[in-house]
Each structure stands twice: as structure tokens, then as C-alpha cells.
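Supplementary Methods, section 5.1.

A reviewer requested that the exact input to the structure prediction be made available. We therefore reproduce it here, unchanged from the version used in the analyses.
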Amino acid sequence: MVMPYLDAARNYFYDLMIGIAILLVGFVIGILVKKFTYRVFKEVGINRIMSNVGVTYDLEKIVSSIISYVIYLFSIVFFLEKLGIKSIVLYLIAGGLLALLILTFLVGLKDIIPNFVAWIYLQRNQTVREGKSLEIREISGVVERVGYLETEIKTKEGDLLYVPNSLFLKSKFRMKKL
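The structure derived from this sequence is encoded cell-by-cell as follows.
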């Protein structure tokens, strides 16, 4: 009766050792591929080529890192598959990434929605229009453009200021005569 448990433990330990070996080999391959792709991109001069187009990021480093992260991810998936827990962990990771994506989207909308609603209000009441002079808080100037999210105001000094539309709902402003 003790033997089946011993065989199961032995098999699980064997699978764990193979899984760890897969993980280590995958990480080593990921590191080697990262270094190799970085050298190839450096030799080709990807950054120099992209800087001519206007891209100033270190693409050689970024792309080689992304490739290595993909290899790391596959290594982890093979490791989890060897242990028999791949689907549970992948569902948890996918759910966490989806929740993070939704939260990021909602946080991004936090500023967009009030400014868009204020734009609708400004369009309906026609209180702030292009070419009119106004004063809001310590900002004074002529309205250049009323956009969906912000209003451009040109000051006497010639500076162009971008004022969020929601500020017109939160603060008192005064239209000045030209």
C-alpha cells in the first residue's frame, strides 16, 4: 500500500527535476539569444537607421529584450506544463493581465470623460469661443481653439497654453471685451 504513494512521489520528483532543467535551459537560451540579437542589431545599426527616421529609442536593446522575454515565457509555460498546472496558472495570469489592462483604461478615462463633458457644455452654451478674450484663474488671453479635451489660449506674451476643458466647469472665468 505504501508503494503507490512512493511511486507517485518519485514520478512527481522526476517531473519536477525535468521541469527545472527545462526552466534553466530556457533561461540560458533566452540570455544567449538576447546577447546574439543585440550584437546582430548593433552590427546592422538599427538605432542609427531609425534615428534618421526620427525614432530615438534604443531599439536594439528593446527588441532583443522582448525576444528574450518571449523565450522566458515559453520556458515557464513548458515548466508548468511538465508539472501539470499550466492551465490554472495561465488563466490566473491572463485574468490578472486583463484586470490590469481594464484598470489602466479606466484610469486613462478618468481625465478624458470630464474634459469631453465640459466640451459639450461649452459648445451648447457657446460661452467660450475662438477669438474671444477670457480670464480664468491666473490665465489671461485669447481663445485660439476649443478642442474636445482642451482649449488653447494665447497669452499677451505670445505663449500658447492648453487649458483642460473641465477647468471651465470647476472655476469661474470671465469673458473680456477686446
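The first helix runs from residue 2 to 44. These observations are discussed further in the main text.
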